[in-house]
Amino acid sequence: MAVPKRKMSKSRRDKRRANWKLTVPGLVECPQCHEMKMPHRVCSECGHYNGKVVIQAE
């Protein structure tokens, strides 16, 4: 049975686990104000989502 010869330090273990990368989330244009926003989120500029006012933007 394979058993490690030495204890792996926390920093060495964490360096190995931190080695994958996320892709940048795609941005879409808001149909109301034409600002860029993340998909399936309320627009932070105008407060619209799915053609309806969800939050009152200033």
Automatic annotation (TrEMBL):
InterPro entries in the record: Ribosomal_bL32, Ribosomal_bL32_bact, Ribosomal_zn-bd
GO cellular component, one term: large ribosomal subunit
Keyword rRNA processing: no
One Pfam family linked to the record: Ribosomal_L32p
SUPFAM superfamilies on file: Zn-binding ribosomal proteins (SSF57829)
GO terms, biological process: translation
GO molecular function: structural constituent of ribosome
This protein's UniProt keywords: Ribonucleoprotein, Ribosomal protein
Family the UniProt entry places it in: Belongs to the bacterial ribosomal protein bL32 family.
HAMAP family: Ribosomal_bL32
Protein name as annotated: Large ribosomal subunit protein bL32
Gene from which this protein is expressed: rpmF
